[in-house]
Amino acid sequence: MPTVETVRGAVDVAELGPTLMHEHVFFVGTEYLQNYGAGWWDEEERVADAIERLRSVAARGVRTFVDPTVWGGGRYIPRIQRINEQVPELNIIVATGYYHYTDAPIQFMNRGPGLIFDETPDPLAREFVRDIAEGIADTGVKAAFLKCAVEHPDPTPGVERVCRAVAYAHRETGAPITVHTNAHQQTGRWVVDLLRAEHADLTKVVIGHSGDSGDLDYLTWLADTGALLGMDRFGLDAFRTTPERVETIVALCERGYAERMVLSHDAMCWIDWFGDDFTGIRDQLMPNWHYEHIHNDVLPALREAGVSEKDIGTMLVDNPRRYFTR
Ligand SMILES: [Zn+2]
User: Fold this and answer.
1) How far, in Å, is the centroid of ligand 1 from the Cα of 95?
2) Cα 180 to averaged position of ligand 1 atoms, centre (Å)
3) 141-152 mean pLDDT
4) What is the DSSP letter of 179?
5) Which segments of the protein form a coiled coil according to its record (predicted)?
6) Which of 132, 178, 261, 267 is the least buried, fewest Cβ under 10 Å from its Cβ?
7) How much distance in Å is there from the Cα of 46 to the middle of ligand 1?
């Protein structure tokens, strides 16, 4: 039986069940937190809040929570382990990679192909491979997928380097890939072309945030490459409302694309991008941006619009299982 690594060890992929494919427990920069977090971060309060939110989404029937928080987004596995211990009914799958819209890590500016310390393969890629093959730091937790970000339509050399390092680690390990993209700028096109040139298996690639777009030409072009569309920002109404997001999924299901979509919210218990009162701001401006919106509201809306139980199961259970099957 194929297995996938989770925070609490290897799990049979057949047991992943209903899966949210792109959520963060936290998105909090570690260096920022350590130096400037005194006014807004209470470790015990934040951990207790996360435990409560994860228990609650598990009670809705979600069995697996896929967290693409990597370096650049404040990945800190010991805190996730501590939380998962208190929510054993939920599988949490963690990632490796790098999240930045313009640069590769400055620690690697001198080391790598063609640099002062000319190293091939890229030592950045070797770090990603180690996270997957041996585990992250000394936590004993192995990353099960790779993450990179392509936000701007004309990616910098730093972004291209990170994407190529992710492709290398994918080829070495077979771990699947999730890419943050800007759907309005259609940056998925660039990264699909790059990953194809790097001989990646595009059926093991999620083009994240595709659901921010309703452009069916773009979405079907992506899906026809074999890639999965991340319909993964439900509740982020500022980018696109839930009825609009639902309408696009319905249209794609009608065209036979249920096998090419996964569902999620891209939500988090805390993110440090909105000042000191994230939860207050979220509850006021985007009250549906939480882990349960899909089960509470989106699935009923999809059923109401005629999407079959089979297609819902395909998006929520079968596609994630196939993605994590190596
Ligand atoms: Zn995200």
Assistant:
1) 11
2) 7
3) 98
4) E
5) none
6) 132
7) 19
Single-letter amino acid code for the residue at 205: V
The beta strand positions in 76-144, using DSSP E, are 91-97, 111-112, 117-118
178 C-alpha vs ligand 1 centroid, how far in Å?
10
Query: What is the whole-number distance in angstroms between the Cα of residue 114 and the centre of ligand 1?
Result: 31
pLDDT at 45 over 90: yes
**Is the Cα torsion angle 59, 60, 66, 71 positive or negative in sign?**
negative
What's the CA-to-centroid distance between 115 and ligand 1, angstroms?
A: 31
pLDDT in tens, 213-256: 999 999 999 999 999 999 999 999 999 999 999 999 999 999 99
pTM over 0.85: yes
Query: What average pLDDT score do residues 279-295 get?
Result: 95
Strand, helix or coil for residue 260? helix
| Residue 281 C-alpha from the chain's centroid | 23
Give the Å distance between the CA of 139 and the centre of ligand 1. Answer: 23
Sign of CA dihedral 324, 190, 182, 221: negative
Q: In the prediction, which pLDDT does 1 show? A: 86
User: 54: which DSSP letter?
Assistant: H
pLDDT digits (tens, 9 = 90+) for 59-81: 999 999 999 999 999 999 999 99
